[in-house]
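Table S2 (continued). Query chain:
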Amino acid sequence: MPEKQVAPVISRLEEFEQNLPGYLNTHSKLAILLDYDGTLAPIASNPSKTKMPVELEAILHKLAKHPQIFLAVISGRALKDVQAHVNIDGVTYAGNHGLEIEYPDGSRHDYELPADIKKNYTAMVQELKQQVEKNGAWVEDKRVSLTYHYRDTPVELKDEQKRLATEICQRHGFRANQAHEAIEAKPPVDWNKGEAALYILKSKFGQDWAEQVLVVFAGDDTTDEDAMRVLQGLGRSFRIAADDKIQTFADFRLPKQDVMTDLLQWIARVYA
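Corresponding output:
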């Protein structure tokens, strides 16, 4: 069974090869699966303001064109939203924590939610907007999941609004996960970023994907742990976190988001 650990830290380019000698090689195909917010782009005060660093974006464009590399972005954002922010051809995009997936050829896989869950979702959005969309907090409605953002709420009001938002989400049958200055409400189905990652890998490389392709995954949030858990022992995953005592399913910890550029540079050097 996968277990969480205090993962060894990698803080600069040279340490990737030192910690993973020979893991990458040009004779093997590579699947790169990445979160967006806090991973490809630094966290911003508002989701609309996020932007990938110029150097990271340039490397990502190169990797997406490489014949030996498969690239997917798995985000909590709505599908069209994450596509608009990354905007790189040849990438497989998964939005809403993998509930909606679109491949480069335009084909899709959408997890079909039961009618009662859809009805509860509509009621939940309405109640959240009425009760806790105030004092700088707002509801990001993503059709099948939502994020309640309270980053700009005065500190003395945050705990109570967060508590009430969580209670509303749970009362409507949704799972309320803590995120960066936000609550993410996901439907009560057995589908998450981990299931989405496995589905994408099987669709692309077959049931024996683990024997066909090397895998690198990176993310910064609790929802990314689902992917790190299912990939433990089958690929290499990286958790972006400043906390040096954080427990994670990832193989390694990156202390800050800008080390992601080093991670992609390490890959680009091998597959140049």
